[in-house]
Amino acid sequence: xxxxxxxxxxxxxxxxxxxxxxxxxxxxxxxxxxxxxxxxxxxxxxxxxxxxxxxxxxxxxxxxxxxxxxxxxxxxxxxxxxxxxxxxxxxxxxxxxxxxxxxxxxxxxxxxxxxxxxxxxxxxxxxxxxxxxxxxxxxxxxxxxxxxxxxxxxxxxxxxxxxxxxxxxxxxxxxxxxxxxxxxxxxxxxxxxxxxxxxxxxxxxxxxxxxxxxxxxxxxxxxxxxxxxxxxxxxxxxxxxxxxxxxxxxxxxxxxxxxxxxxxxxxxxxxxxxxxxxxxxxxxxxxxxxxxxxxxxxxxxxxxxxxxxxxxxxxxxxxxxxxxxxxxxxxxxxxxxxxxxxxxxxxxxxxxxxxxxxxxxxxxxxxxxxxxxxxxxxx
Length: 379
Prior knowledge:
The protein is an alpha/beta fold and about 375 residues long. The protein has two domains: about 5-10 and about 265-379, Aspartate Aminotransferase, domain 1, CATH 3.90.1150; about 15-255, 3-Layer(aba) Sandwich (Aspartate Aminotransferase, domain 2), CATH 3.40.640. About 40% of the residues lie in helices and about 15% in strands. It is built from twelve helices and twelve strands. The strands form three sheets. It has a seven-stranded mixed sheet, sandwiched between helices. A three-stranded antiparallel sheet has the order 9-10-12. Helix 5 links the parallel strand 3 and strand 4 (about 120). Helix 6 (about 130-140) packs parallel to helix 7 (about 160-170). The longest helix is centred in the C-terminal third of the chain and has 38 residues, at about 245-285.
């Protein structure tokens, strides 16, 4: 029996409908959407606009507020580093973020910190949640940016994005949300018009790798004052030049369409699996890393007292594929900065395991029997 894939927060399988539309724009309608003078270019351009419209419906924006990128990492970098020129001009060089952000947010901010910016990093509570009042207490006259993810990639804990947006209100502060894990899964919070910048990856919602989105929402008819990080063309209104990968964009558009259409049904299926896992793990008296009342429906993170996560993954690799941290940093393993921010107990930090599934995941009684036997053997 092949191991069951339980690492969907690292990447999801591609939906068959997404593969179908990608093949169309790889094999038949392969034109460059920038070629406006002939049929093939026109067809490609239309496909890109259809994708924009499907994406726009999820976050309640217009198609011209969508910039295609290679993924959420690039989107995060453009959103953060792209404000540098404006910040220096306006003498607004204060940034607020949290210690549980993805490295694709923390490292660009660290770069600005080394370049003279002032950075406040807010810690979560023991359950992985950020207090909006703490964010509020850090705001200064020269605050440029607040960057808070909507759902954590390691714990699945969702953050009070709408409450933070309400606190910022009419302040001249740009609000960036890394929505790599939540886009298409949690709808209403990301539709909040006070969120200026939203980062998205295609391969987290059953779409292809190598394509993402940066939402640059209009406020008072003006976009966030971003300076491009690369140059060499006018694509994406000059913010992210380069030939658009039409087949990837069409695939992401289809994935967005399916996510909006099916999100309630998917969340219900995921929640049933999640509750099964929670009930099973409670019997074994594990430590849950994260607020069980504020979780993505497809994620659970836990630690087993006295059990190292590396040992657990090695022994369980024939049963299931799971993770002990962000897939983006596993080439140089270090204890999770996310779990460490929540709990200073070294056994909890070293033992943290993330399990993440999707709506078609099938778990049998045999699977849970084998998992129980494994956990008993380890303890």
